Amino acid sequence: MAEGEGRTGLIALPVAVLLLALLTVWVVVFSREDGGGQAIDDADDLVAATSTAPSSRPGELAEVWRAPAVAAAIDGVGARATRLWVHEDTVTLVSTAGVTGYGTVDGERLWAAEAPPGAGRPCAAADTINSAGTGAVLWTAGAGEEGCSVLGVLDTATGDLLWSERFGGPVTAEETTVTVGEQTVTVNLDAAGTVGAFHRFAADTGEELPLPAPPEDSAWDCVSGRETVNVHHAGSRIAVLTRCDDAPELSVYHADTGQLEWTHPAADAGFAVTGILAGDPVLLLQDHEVVAYSETGDELWRLPAVELNPRVSAVAGEALVTRYSSTSFTGYGLVGGERLWQAELPENTELYGVDATGEPVLGHSDSGAGLLRLLRLDPATGADTPVGTLPLDPRRAADTRHVAWDANQLYVLAPVERDGTTGLRLRAFER
């Protein structure tokens, strides 16, 4: 080989390698900035994005798209901010990294919501949105601050901030409860249901609405006037405890209209409401018991609170489905409170909600296989039906996930890890 040819080869080879590297970086950066659903940012993504070979894993759901991972907190306070909402052609991801909307068809990033003026990062959010796609998020009071005291209400179709409200005083994410109704947004800033921590707003305009007025019934007029003791809310109901001449009264209102649905005096002078498990039907936490009420306010049944986990419970069909122990779920009849069934499931099983069929959707990780196994439970019998499996990052297989769905797809938000850094990745799978 001639001397000139040798020099040309020595120069051409590193140039070609450099050009290939630059092209690879350009593809990654472009796909991230474009917000598309197939951004490749680690070796696992490269295999998943380029392989067309069918999976050999039985029952594995087909992945439709994946969004770029976001650097968001996944544990502790960060988990309080994490939500996944689906409305029409948009799936909204709420995390400590912000609020972003993705197209349900291809995972393309549609919008990134701006925080309310002066606010920091999301710190809590409503579990669900309403039928118009309105969602509610609480942000920290400012950059570097931990107080969870700025409410922002969003249109999830566009990402537009409809209105916001800043609350005073120290507020922690663990204490807050936010619900979005068809007409109102309701917020409790402490778990005790303190009257001053309760706020109710018109969902479209942000106009603050008053606390529902105490009942006025000549059957037990109050000489000294009624005093509101505490307020709790869940779903479409607000439960208010008042005292009439030191005698406790329980009243339940519709959250949207503020209309009184029923009220009655409590027989026990020490009667106290410590929380609300569900609004339809009304299930209240009263000291160490869960008490169910009919539409007219008659007590239906009560159970020791130790028999269920309020944080892992859902009303499905004619049953209250709840975690009973670390390895079992139980269904209780809504009318009589009787135990209908008990299902033994893996210890790390999570409850994701109730689908359009009225069946609870649950899942548990199989760390050995690196899979999330999804299933449905029959609320009447507890019989389980496999839904399918999907792959997990094996390094984060034991972490909590969020699952949402529409008529065609499942949306799974799961922690991922790369080079020791954790974040969240949203993926869509065929149902």
UniProtKB/TrEMBL annotation:
Where in this chain does the record put each Pyrrolo-quinoline quinone repeat domain?
A: 151-363
Q: For this UniProt entry, which segments traverse the membrane?
A: 9-29
Q: Keywords assigned by UniProt? A: Membrane, Transmembrane, Transmembrane helix
By its UniProt entry, which InterPro entries does this protein fall under?
Answer: PQQ_rpt_dom, Quinoprotein_ADH-like_sf, WD40/YVTN_repeat-like_dom_sf
Q: What is this protein called?
A: PQQ-binding-like beta-propeller repeat protein
Organism field: Streptomyces johnsoniae
